[in-house]
Amino acid sequence: MRQDSQMLLTPTEMALADSAAVKKGVPAVSLMAAAGFAVVEAIRRRWSKRTVLVLCGPGNNGGDGFVIARLLHTAGWPVCLAFHGDETSLSKEAMHHFKAWQGRVETFSDALFDGVELVVDAMFGAGLSRPLDARYRDMVNAMIARKLPICAVDVPSGVDGSTGKALGEVAPAALTVTFFRKKPGHLLFPGRALCGELVVADIGIPEQVLVDINVQTWENSPELWCQDYPWPRLEGHKFHRGHAVVYGGESTTGASRLTARSALRIGAGLVTVTAPSRVWPIYAASLISVMATSLDEGREQEAFAELLIDARHNAICIGPGAGLQGEEKVRTRHAVLSALATKRAVVLDADALSAFSDDPHTLFDAINGPCVMTPHEGEFVRVFPEINNSPEINNVHATDKVTRARLAAKLSGAVVLLKGADTVIASPDGQAIINSNAPAHLATGGSGDVLAGFIVGLLAQGMAPFDAAAAAVWLHGEVANVFGIGLIAEDLPECLPGVLSDFKQHYCSTEN
Ligand SMILES: NC(=O)C1=CN([C@@H]2O[C@H](COP(=O)(O)OP(=O)(O)OC[C@H]3O[C@@H](n4cnc5c(N)ncnc54)[C@H](O)[C@@H]3O)[C@@H](O)[C@H]2O)[C@@H](O)CC1
Ligand SMILES: [K+]
Description:
Layout lengths: L10 H13 L4 H19 L5 E5 L3 H15 L4 E5 L8 H9 L4 E2 L11 E5 L11 H13 L3 E4 L21 E5 L4 H4 L3 H5 L1 E5 L15 E3 L23 E5 L5 H13 L4 E7 L3 H7 L4 E5 L4 H8 L5 E6 L8 H15 L3 E5 H5 L5 H7 L4 E4 L2 H7 L1 H4 L12 H12 L2 E4 L5 E3 L5 E3 L12 H14 L4 H19 L7 H17 L5
Parallel strand pairs: 1-2, 1-4, 2-3, 4-5, 5-6, 6-7, 8-17, 9-10, 9-12, 10-11, 12-13, 13-14, 14-15
Antiparallel strand pairs: 15-16, 16-17
The structure holds ligand NAX and potassium ion.
The site of potassium ion (K) has 11 residues, from strand 4 and strand 5.
EC number: 4.2.1.136, 5.1.99.6
InterPro entries: Carbohydrate_kinase_pred_CS, CARKD, Nnr, Ribokinase-like, YjeF_N_dom, YjeF_N_dom_sf
Catalytic activity: (6S)-NADHX + ADP = AMP + phosphate + NADH + H(+); (6S)-NADPHX + ADP = AMP + phosphate + NADPH + H(+); (6R)-NADPHX = (6S)-NADPHX; (6R)-NADHX = (6S)-NADHX
């Protein structure tokens, strides 16, 4: 996966990009000037001339602040610049711009905010390595108390650009201007909420610097996977579009029915729900284009395994409504192991994951083929308890969602889709995608069942697990955006066709 435009750079990777640009002949002073210029442009597009306070920290984030103060002053804005740090430790480029500032340099104090209408937060960016020292913290608290609009340079001070974690109190920005590429911390919560509107500015770093940086994290977008999207082909027929099997349980039958319908809507040629014979009539009476197969009473496990002997059943989803009570749990576990033994594409969601909370390694050992796991945070903790105690993540910078999902993928051998407002999809080879298009109203009962259905439907059509997971998550979010408030899970598959045709028109212009 190379899609340069969607790459997310960690602060360390951004520093590599920065120094590679300097090696290629772009002076560091110019990069800083361009960064400051971009922030001023963004400010002037959003706010009319007003009194501005620019708070500058000790590193290059503060250096950008010196440029911003100078350019706003030149444009006739009333500007107050305050700096806290050791002047003699400024980098060469920051010193250059510090000297170019002709006005007064104020020391940090609460009184600075009097009469101010906009604050530029240029205290800390990529170089933040620990919670803020007291003087900076006081300014952050003052910003929070005054409720003034804030434009943050690179990230709101206190947000870790790599993890999105807040190292202490953070004043939320109305606008954040970052440079060259977004950082993971702009998309991961709470960072995402603290950034406000996010602008990415070109500051003259040549794109070629990315070739030597082994970027492993992307923002989800159709550009990452639209080339491999399995559109129906004229010469194809339903058997070419795969046959998904969805394991149906006894008590919550709606969940697997939603999954099955979603798999069909996203284009699987055939979808079968299997159900114990006792409850089969419920499925049979309520499903039309989805088929319902009855598993004989007393030999459900064998019957499910026998069904899977037919290799045309090329993608299997277990979890939604599968059941965890008594015998049901035994059957759920057995179904998971039978499905994995086929080495065909398998989606494991909800109960299929929780059923292995006592012995997750039994599950991991069985994964030897294409597999996508879709835990939410609670299920993740149950299935990957060791990750939460791992020494590898035993520091504040690493306990983020991307790191945990990556470790889980490596440990299990499956693509791990860790759900939430900032869903992360990680592959065992270390690649990770952060999703950013999900609206708040997507958090509704059954929406996870639909997501599992979208994934298994794409797997049935031959899409690779990492791409299928990313595509399903993006389409899921997009459908919710298009439908809007009032959405219930049933609406998701019904609203998918319109979203699919818009997506096809936008991203897949050549006919298949
Ligand atoms: N990397 C790039 O390509 C570019 C970076 N630029 C700016 O440079 C910034 C990164 O600069 P730096 O690496 O100097 O990082 P910062 O400016 O974020 O801060 C680093 C400095 O703060 C100190 N520090 C860290 N945590 C502290 C704390 N809690 N309390 C007190 N001091 C603390 C460090 O010892 C170091 O002196 C970016 O965020 C961006 O704003 C721009 O100038 C444009 C180009
Ligand atoms: K900042």
